[in-house]
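Can you give me the bound-state structure? Components:
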Amino acid sequence: MLKKERQAYILHQVNLHNKVLSSSLCTDINVSEDTIRRDLQELSDEGKVIKVHGGALSHSFNQVHFSSNGVYSQNQKKIIAQKAVGLISNGMFVLTSGGTTIIEMARSLPPQLRATFISGSIPAILEYMYHPNIEVILIGDRISKNSKITVGSEAIAKIKQVKADICFLGTNAIDVEHGITDNDWEVVQLKRAMIESSKMVVCLSIAEKVNSVQPIRVCGIDEIDMLITELPADDSMLKPYRDAGVKVA
Amino acid sequence: MLKKERQAYILHQVNLHNKVLSSSLCTDINVSEDTIRRDLQELSDEGKVIKVHGGALSHSFNQVHFSSNGVYSQNQKKIIAQKAVGLISNGMFVLTSGGTTIIEMARSLPPQLRATFISGSIPAILEYMYHPNIEVILIGDRISKNSKITVGSEAIAKIKQVKADICFLGTNAIDVEHGITDNDWEVVQLKRAMIESSKMVVCLSIAEKVNSVQPIRVCGIDEIDMLITELPADDSMLKPYRDAGVKVA
DNA sequence: CGAACTTCTGCGTTTTTGTGCAGGAATTTC
DNA sequence: GAAATTCCTGCACAAAAACGCAGAAGTTCG
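Here's the bound-state model for the whole set.
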């Protein structure tokens, strides 16, 4: 078994069960504990997992992580949210992924807006629920605990049944060459389905994540209609995207 | 169980109930009191909880004492929750409705329990999500904002696809003659589907709601396998139900 | 082709960490 | 004020991590 392959397996296990024991891993893939430990060390250095005595945990465990960068990029995300809500008008069917940027958008929805929001993200749904005038459709299936979103074939099938006017994707990584990429296999499947089910695809991303790449590909740049960051539309950092035919706001 | 995992559990419990007893924690997660005490010490050093003699308190508990009414019925619901979780064992498929009693049950689930929980209630799902070992299946469809639960034909169709070992119904009204009744048409449809999809139906109800009736009928007494209230099982108020063949706990 | 080099992996050994236990001190409670 | 908890300290044992080393496998480069 190759190193990368092994690490992918470990990552998958962590994302699935929220925790993993080094002892069980080393019997699983039949390598020494040292190897596992080194793998966990690397994954931890890359910020993929949280290493603890005896194994590793998924990020969903330490909520400290959330609050720390939460305040920091909050302002940037508010700017993005403002730009994003401008695209929504009455009567629209809106498909959204999860992620903190999407949450921020949900909070910025004008109260008189009448639209239908469809999502499998629990935190997003919570926000939509408090809105007086929007209709909320929840995509059901198994819940992935660390991404707090429903994943699985049922969820994908349901998404494929809709044809939304617009789709907002919270983005982990976007790059001109590699397009949108992510690190959770199941979430990627979901995002792909959402893109296919929408007339227009809008990608929300803080500048920090622009020009970064993650292991798993969601879609190419050509499938994105619009990219929203906290930067002004004519920022030089975004020029490659404009050149590639993506609207930038 | 890993140290961080344990501390996350403790923290969750503290934030949930605003207090926690070291004695109950150590039976919960099956470690010595010393370990618990050391964990509380660490969490206290990090400022996550306030350590007191016999356990720990949440930070928010400091000055604002919550409304007495909330705590009052809260205690009754805790008793019900305790009785209810006793019915769940490893590997079970559990179907639950929404309601505050169900939430209380969700919060009382022992952390080592491994089971699959299926629900369309957003608040309930939120609780299940924090549990380290249970699998969560979310029933999707349109969200009813006042009951915070998914309703509609899709949701009902999905529920009919499962055959759960046990079904817990938070109850608005129960009566020997009229059975379970409720006041929301769509929620009633959902509950009916849940009853049909379960081998065993358990009805959770505080004594206050026993012998009351609401406009819409969910099911008759004969379809209920068990009734759980905060009263002792041999309370005279519950005699009619025992006579009707309902197990009472 | 093959020598020098890097990377990966497993094996001891040493260090650190986590946990439980026993006692005595401190506290709550009645 | 006495009994019962609960807390703290030191200690012992076990589990896991870190470290250095060495062999194997793969790469680079002349």
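A couple of observations. Chain B touches chain A through 27 residues (CB under 8 Å). Residues 22-23, 33-34, 37, 53-54 of chain B lie near DNA strand D (CB under 10 Å from a C1').
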